[in-house]
Amino acid sequence: MASPFSGVLQLTDLDDFIGPSQDCIKPMKVDKRSGSGVAKIHIEDDGSYFQVTQDGGTRKLEKAKISLDDCLACSGCVTSAETVLITQQSHEELRKVIDANKTAAPGQQRLVVVSVSPQSRASLAAQFGLNPTDTARKLTAFFKKIGVHYVFDTSFSRNFSLLESQREFVQRFRGQADSQQALPVLASACPGWICYAEKTHGSFLIPYLSTVRSPQQVMGSLVKDFFAQQQHLTPDRIYHVTVMPCYDKKLEASRPDFFSQDYQTRDVDCVVTTGEVFKLLEEEGVSLSELEPAPLDSLCSSVSAQEPSSHRGGGSGGYLEHVFQHAARELFGIHVDEITYRPLRNKDFQEVTLEKEGQIVLHFAAAYGFRNIQNLVQKLKRGRCPYHYVEVMACPAGCLNGGGQLKAPNTPGKELLQRVETLYSTVRTEAPEDAPGIRELYRCWLQGEGSERAGRLLHTSYHAVEKASSSLGIRW
Ligand code: SF4
């Protein structure tokens, strides 16, 4: 199959070779030929790059080497041709663990758990012409067929991320008189954005970031702590894989903050993208649509899930909506049924306000894509950011459009995205506080809401990465 990245790029007046879609901080020099001001780059099906020389010939270009530490997770190169550089986490690794289990001595096997994101499920549903429920059941059947023991859904862990975000916002809103950096709260579920914030505006932005773990990392806590206890296993005896819409989630899982020194294991051992699951299906010669569905697994023995559930508020998790509705009720006693978005510069920068007695009392925004993120950061730096909360996502159009999602060679990107969005929105939604099992887990696993244990397992911290290089002057 032809690579979706085959083709010719025309880079006008660039000093450096850049990745397929955005500037990278690890650029490679390309000799500029005098006079033309244009460098033509040809990308082969196997991902090799060639510079087209003035005499019409080609010159092979060396690939830029990016380590996990260097990468900005800007959703440009990392989401496409540089995939091969992220070798620590791939579907091959999952396969190795499954194969090792087959020959392991009794008692030496690792319990393999896969947690699937709702965005990946929607992308696979579009690819195979299935509805999300059938996709979830058939994916469960597929993973179990190849040797996975349990398949969970990260919509479940997202309940905790949303509830903790609500609580955190109300607390910081109430404490704004004590700290100048209490507001705005900047959502932190997107590792592409976090990576950018830490590496380009470190100590300035970090105080504003929400400390709540993303659904992937809450799932990490649930699987390696709660579920491990239920199974009478130490965390290192579980191999936890997540299926995610972007490569940036691999970087998130690799953060030292999510590594247990005691057990020498990560909360999420391996992240595979939606595209990698598709590859796995192809390699196994399996068509998802032809598989017999299997019942869904549930993390809580008291909960039996017949169908997947989701949350209101769009394909990136619904942070803005949930925090807004909760804050309106909790802080101003106003019940908000429907959220009305007002587009600003473009459809990826929108705002929502709550008025009381003619005054704006809550001012929220959603800023997707690095152009809008940069705009937001500039507003903050100039002291002209009017927002109390911003849902920040690195990908234009959000997580359903993540770089690890499936592409369809014969379907225009926009049309495919619309199909994925429609499928995603057909899943039954529920309020996080009403989700079965959540209250019970707060009580029995976390020792109550707002407890020290909940703080440790559901929150994280960030670290400024100071770069001496001027290569961070990125033009988005
Ligand atoms: Fe990944 Fe979503 Fe962030 Fe895109 S917006 S980089 S898909 S978390």
- Which residues sit in consecutive blocks of at least 5 with pLDDT less than 50? 1-38, 78-82, 468-476
**Gyration radius, to the nearest Å?**
23 Å
Order of strands, main sheet, comes to 9-17-16-15-14
Q: Main sheet, how many strands, which sense, barrel?
A: 5 strands, mixed
Task: Tally the helices.
Answer: 14
Small-molecule binders here are: iron/sulfur cluster
Would you report the number of β strands? 17
Give the N-to-C terminal Cα separation.
Answer: 31 Å
| Class inferred from helices and paired strands | alpha/beta
Give the overall shape. Answer: globular
The helix fraction, in percent, is 25-40%
- Sheet-strand content, in percent, reads 15-25%
Arithmetic mean pLDDT: 85
